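We emphasize that the prediction below concerns an isolated chain of 757 residues; any contacts that depend on oligomerization or on bound cofactors are therefore not represented. The input was used exactly as deposited, without trimming of termini.
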Amino acid sequence: MLQDRLREMPDANTKQHWLIQTAVDACDPGAEMHLVDRRLPIDDVWAEARRICSCSDEELVELVADRYGLGVANLSHAEPRTIKLVPEKLARSCTVFPLREDDSHLVVATSDPTNLEAEQQLMFVSGRSPVFEVAAPETVRQALEAHYRPDSAAEKLLKSIDTHGKSVHIVGTGEPEDLVEEDVGGEPVIKLANLILREAVEQHASDIHLGPGRGTGSVRYRVDGVLQLQMRLPMPVFNRVVSRIKILGSMDISVRLKPQDGRARIRVHDEYFDLRISTVPTRGAEKCVVRILYSETVLGLSDIGLSESELVRFRQMLSHRDSIVFVTGPTGSGKTTTLYAALRELATGDVNIMTVEDPVEYELEGLTQIQVEPKRGVTFASALRAILRQDPDIILIGEIRDPETAEIAVQAAQTGHLVLSTLHTNDALGVIPRLVDLGLTRQSIADSVGGMVAQRLVRKLRPDRSEEVGDDLAPAEIDLMQRYGVSPKFRAVEQGDGSSPYKGRLPVLESVVITPPLRSLISSGAPPEELRAEVRVSGTRPLRDGGRDLVAEGVTTLEELDRALGESATETDDSGQQEAVPAAAADAIALDVAADLAADAMAAVAERMPGESLPPSDALDGSLEDDGDEAGPAHVIMADDDAVVRKVAQALLEKAGFKFTPAVDGVEAMELLNSNEDFDLMILDLDMPKLMGADLLRIARSSPRTAGLPIVVLTGSPDMPSEVDLIDQGADDYIRKPLEPARFLARVKAVLRRAGG
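Result of the prediction step, given as a token string:
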């Protein structure tokens, strides 16, 4: 027993120990004196002190810190430059870990604040006065291993994972000449990087996200469109893994303050996979995203899960050989897969099919595929001009991004070519204003566009991870049922192992076939309401209708449909006006006092969900877990010069569990964004004094610090730019004034869901 070892020491070395006395004084005053040998390891004495107090390491740390008037060490906030001040040998012999420093002081974590010898040695090697903060011995030791021996930490991670017989082979990559060995890491780091790549391929992940945090970095896989946390790495290990992946992509590991792109090719289980690697600088490290391209057999249109009615409409669009067919949707919505399925069906051998892509994701037999290479002068526009001299019948353009490409695509369609392409719009009819913004006339759009398809992907519920809903509906399910107008058949059953109850995805489509009446309305510049009414008459089903069918059939759940569609789930009334279903219950807010306005808004939300407080999104649960940061409430900054609007938004967001910071104008917002405060979302008004919202949006998007910050534009002006124009400028969504509580919260949550995966 440890107690016996502590008491059976030679008398010459046995005396009262400061730590034991601290424990006795705090937890058992008046107890007999505990004599221990001061030569015992601090771990043993620490264990005995915990036994006396019946407490945890954290509680004992608090006792010691309180007795000696010291701070409690936070080892996750250690500064890298400080670690270099203390040699590893000294840090290990004294069991201390350096945390931070200034010109006069060196702050270190220690389990023995009475160690005068350690204090003297630290002063000598650093030239600064040591300041002790208290930490448990095991905590100090783990920090020493992670920061001084990151390879050991990587090796420890690998030992817990079965890697026998599984490997990743790197194919066709070159390494920069100026490799820095200490940045690359040793064999354990290489094995760990290979493990991350292999596991991602085995889980059929589309992307790997390596995100830095305060004390640890996270590794997340995007599987079926949703990010899933796989592991956390100590930051020294994380940085070396990122460097290793940069080497695979022939990127410069000495450059860490600029974004970089690279490519690699790997072999896993005798299959080849192409990687597209992107890094961006963050506050303290680089974030790395790896896109995995699978060389899979391309499925036909009949095999990708389209409903029979949508399949018929899509084939009708493809039957015209002198028009453009657009597939629209956000990134990751399966646009390219659908177009490749169409190409496979069209590639009958008697037509010349050519593509311009960035990147070429699938290699198809019988097609000529061109990879965009801007550094070599191969852009969408230049490649498309060259293709037109190659006598093509069908042309695929990966994406129309600029006026020149749009103009050439229209010319190609009008001269007898079938053109397939993608755009980023919220719905099918969004193609029209997007093309207008690119400089095309409405007449040329009407003459050249043959069809428009909006698409989303909905995850399929696993039969073994579902249960029938019956009549026992949860409040959230009732709310979704009312919003979408369909009763769920099954609900997902979560397991303790963290695995997803969903596997695989199905497309949900909104197809608009250009009919003569619709063509006439487009060319005459008819308003959106008339266009929506016409496409509904011609048989177009909104996205939400296809999603409702899948819920009614038990293929997916209401929660998954809401995650995939979000604000796309809208209905159109007879007047053509779109509104959420059910309509937000907020009355017109016309009170003079801001506090009363906020109370009125909250009452409207309470009316919408009687008997329950407003919950945050089920995907957020009132908090947002950032890479490496502890979970906490999502932090929203709002820039608006209207005090009433700020007050209403604050009441709504704080009631929903968010943290809220107001800014009275664009200048104050920029100062807050450049502070040490972390924000998860910005809401900005377009019309503000000092700095207009559009300028604030542009500045935020051009700064590495805020380039990835989700931004929602807020406006009450009737002359507001089009939604497409705002999204092109960098906005993730927009909201009109006056604020309707339910709609406002739904859009905020939807943007945060999309940003967090």
